[in-house]
Amino acid sequence: MIRALLGTALSFLALSVVFGGLERAFPARRGQAFLRSELGIDLLFFSGQYLVFSGLSTALLAAVEHALGLRGLSLAAWSNSHPLWLRAVVALIAGDVLVYWFHRACHHFDLLWRFHAVHHSVERLDWLAAHREHPFDGMVTQLCQNLPGIVLGLPFEALGSLIVLRGMWAIFIHSNVRLPLGPLRYVLGAPELHHWHHARVERTLHNFANVAPWLDLMFGTFHVPEGEETYELGLVDAWPRGYFAQLVRPFGVRLWDRPPGALADPVSLG
């Protein structure tokens, strides 16, 4: 447990230095302070991800890999005859396609939206707010992203590298950062694209492919916002303030709801 706590603390420090530095140097919304309302809630989401739910996601992926092997659904024997780089590219593209359609489904079906709305309840985007995510939503997303690699029998090292790289870029696109990425934003995504996805509208219809915007281009859901980021973020409906209240909200338990935009207290500890 001590090692897990130390690892979480070191991860927080490293991310603070890297992404916090980018936010100070290239802010998308100038004047947005890190010590914001609901900072404590997002710290709890960050801690929960690193200390509990990342382990559960790993266990889920391992269980799926074992089940596919038992049922003879693994393509590892066939794919091993192909170069590792090719298998990794196929797994990456297929995973992005699955994530895109799952994400789009989360905005379409009420049952999935209940869980996904936790992530969209953020009203001040920064690198820490990227971690506000219901564990069900996060684990299914991880399953979609990694299922093709599991089916193709990619080695753990390859899967782990993909998870880390995609995870870091996902944090970047949530950060309060605006950088001229040029054509790269059509391949890997950019903060301005994903920030628009968090605009306070009724279940946005744009930019579902967080780190693969070419899919949005392909399926007609791509949008580049113009000008400075002055639009409001978050949900249009009332939403609970606390960490545990948000975890149980998808199950119909209503606790401490507040109207959208009502960020009055300086720092909430959940």
Quick overview of this protein structure:
The protein is mainly alpha-helical. The protein has helices at residues 2-25, 39-70, 76-79, 84-108, 110-120, 135-151, 156-174, 185-188, 191-197, 214-219, 243-248, and strands at 239-240, 257-258.
Describe the structure.
This protein is an all-alpha fold and 270 residues long. It has helices spanning 2-25, 39-70, 76-79, 84-108, 110-120, 135-151, 156-174, 185-188, 191-197, 214-219, 243-248, and strands spanning 239-240, 257-258. Strands 1-2 form a two-stranded antiparallel ribbon. Residues 264-270 have low confidence and may be disordered.
Q: Provide mean pLDDT, rounded.
A: 89
Q: Report the span from N to C terminus.
A: 23 Å
Alpha-beta classification: mainly alpha
Principal-axes shape call: globular
Tell me roughly what share of residues is in helical segments.
55-70%
SSE string: HHHHHHHHHHEHE
Structurally, how many domains make up the residues?
1
Radius of gyration: 19 Å
